[in-house]
Amino acid sequence: MKIEFKEVSFEYRSSLLPTHQALEQISFQIGPGEIVAIVGPSGSGKTTLLQHLNGLLSPTSGQILIDDQDLHTQPKLIQQIRRRIGVAFQFPEIQLFEETVFEDVAFGPKNLGEDEAKVEQSVRSALKLVRLNYNQYEDRSPFHLSGGEQRRVALAGILAMNPDVLVLDEPTVGLDRASSDCVMQVIQTFRASGKTVIFVSHNMDLVATLADRILVLENGKITFDGSRPDLFSNNKILVRAALTHPQVVSWMQSLAEKGLPVRTDVYSIPDAKAEMDRVLRSDL
């Protein structure tokens, strides 16, 4: 699926409050198989942008094209797109409502008209992706699960609909390490199937580990659109957008400043370990 924003602007309007310009002249394209992170200060417009991706909000001006079709000129298209773009906003577990895990995850596939056997297959596959054993969880109440398990059930409900694009707002916030690792694995597996992931996060370690491409939003405008090396080597942008270096990058930079010949364009702990092994072997 190809997604394109063409000079999209959005204003929040109210008779009680002043008009607020949340997005201004936003333009970008996202193609199949990308993992794109959207970062920026609080209030920069990140969640507002996400809400435009499946038609929850309509732009004040500009166009949103999905596979070259204007999302807001064809009402029927919006319903189709919502089936193809799965969105999990921050704390999606608050949307859980069915009596059992099975019924909650099955809700979407049933609404798509899948028969009973296909629904069960979809639920089994989705729960497996989020590392929840079908036989152990299918009859349990989602409200009696831990917070991390609830988040995974909510994510399974989206995955069960087999979307082409997965959109996540702060996907690991409030999660323990095991659940965070699970979400990261889901994102990587989803992309490995040739599909697209778009996520918002303040967790720069998560961004550095997963994102192929990063968009920086400031005051409703895109001020950067590029790769991890280009962003994390640009201190001016990081400071202006109130962003920090990932811990791994900061650690590697501190080692380089102390004279160790390590690369500083390393973004994950496994890659950092491999780089340290390389340097140690070269000293033998």
How would you characterize this protein structure?
The protein is an alpha/beta fold and 284 residues long. The protein has two domains: 3-95 and 164-244, Rossmann fold, CATH 3.40.50.300; 246-284, no CATH class. It contains twelve helices and ten strands. It has a six-stranded mixed β-sheet with strand order 6-7-8-3-9-10, with helices on both faces. A four-stranded antiparallel β-sheet has the order 2-1-4-5, covered by helices on one side. Strand 4 (61-66) and strand 5 (69-70) form a beta hairpin. Helix 3 packs across helix 4. The longest helix is centred in the middle third of the chain and has 16 residues, at 177-192.
Strand segment count: 10
Radius of gyration: 20 Å
Coarse morphology: globular
Query: What's the main sheet like?
Result: 6 strands, mixed
**CATH fold naming of the largest domain:** Rossmann fold
Q: Indicate the proportion of strand residues.
A: 15-25%
CATH class of the largest domain: Alpha Beta
Sequence of secondary-structure elements: EEEHEEHEHHHHEHEHEEHHHH
> What is the helix tally?
12
Name given to the CATH architecture of the largest domain:
3-Layer(aba) Sandwich
Considering DSSP H and I runs of 4 or more, what fraction of the residues is helical?
A: 40-55%
Number of domains: 2
Unreliably modeled segments: none
- Helix/strand-derived category reads alpha/beta
Distance between the termini: 50 Å
* CATH H-tier superfamily of the largest domain: P-loop containing nucleotide triphosphate hydrolases
